[in-house]
Every structure is written in structure tokens, then in C-alpha cells.
């Protein structure tokens, strides 16, 4: 019996693993949500495009876990492509969803194996290249 309030099924773990090892030409995101009926963490969608395009696809009133693959150019000219976990938790989300989302964050964070976590509560206007780069620097 699980002691967590939400379960992370093998299919979701496999999707995370597959996303981690994919090569993308630009920004890409694996968007994951909690299915309220089954209390499981499931893949919502996989997105590619600019950060602004990815942000536009995220719901305005529902939390999501987002694994973001983002090319980052360092001051010394090196290019890296870190994976970062975006905790998408708009302040306009219903309290019940936020509580469920918060309870599953640690479970998902461990499975995602991302070095950095960025909290996003204000919506798409903060999901910009400047904002992400500043948090990753």
C-alpha cells in the first residue's frame, strides 16, 4: 500500500525517461497533471516551440508539473540543455486541485530527477526566456 496521496504509474515514469533522453532542437516540455478520479500522475501532453508558445498551452486555472528542456547559453559561450522542473501552480487554481498538486510534487520531483525547480504562480506572463534564464544562471 502506498503512503502517498497520489500514485506515479510506470507508464508516466517511462514517458519521463523517454523525454529525458530525447534530443530537441529548441525548447520542449513534458506536461504532466494529476488525474483526480484515479489519483495518479499522468502525462497531459508533450510540447515543442518557443517558451511563450509552450506557456500559452498551459492551463490558466489548473496546476501542472512541467519538465522543460531549455537550451541555455552561458557567459563563457558554452551551450547546455538542462532539464528543469516547472511547478506550474496558477494562483487562480481551485484550492482542492492545489492541495492535490502540492501533495504530489515531491513524488514527481523525485521521478523527474531535475536539478532545478522553478515555481510559477502568476501564469504565462512570467514564462519567458529572460525569466527562465535568470533562474537557471
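^ C-alpha cells above, recovered residues below v
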Amino acid at each position: 500500500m502506498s503512503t502517498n496521496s497520489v500514485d506515479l504509474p510506470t507508464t508516466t515514469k517511462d514517458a519521463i525517461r523517454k523525454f529525458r533522453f530525447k534530443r530537441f532542437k529548441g525548447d520542449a516540455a513534458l506536461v504532466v497533471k494529476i488525474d483526480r478520479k484515479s489519483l495518479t500522475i499522468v502525462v497531459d501532453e508533450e510540447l515543442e516551440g518557443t517558451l511563450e508558445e509552450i506557456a500559452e498551452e498551459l492551463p490558466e486555472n489548473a496546476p501542472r508539473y512541467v519538465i522543460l528542456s531549455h537550451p541555455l547559453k552561458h557567459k563563457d559561450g558554452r551551450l547546455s540543455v538542462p532539464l528543469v522542473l516547472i511547478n506550474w501552480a496558477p494562483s487562480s487554481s481551485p484550492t482542492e486541485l492545489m492541495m492535490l498538486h502540492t501533495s504530489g510534487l515531491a513524488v514527481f520531483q523525485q521521478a523527474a530527477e531535475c536539478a532545478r525547480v522553478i515555481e510559477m504562480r502568476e501564469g504565462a506572463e512570467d514564462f519567458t526566456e529572460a525569466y527562465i534564464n535568470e533562474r537557471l544562471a
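DSSP finds four helices and seven strands in the chain.
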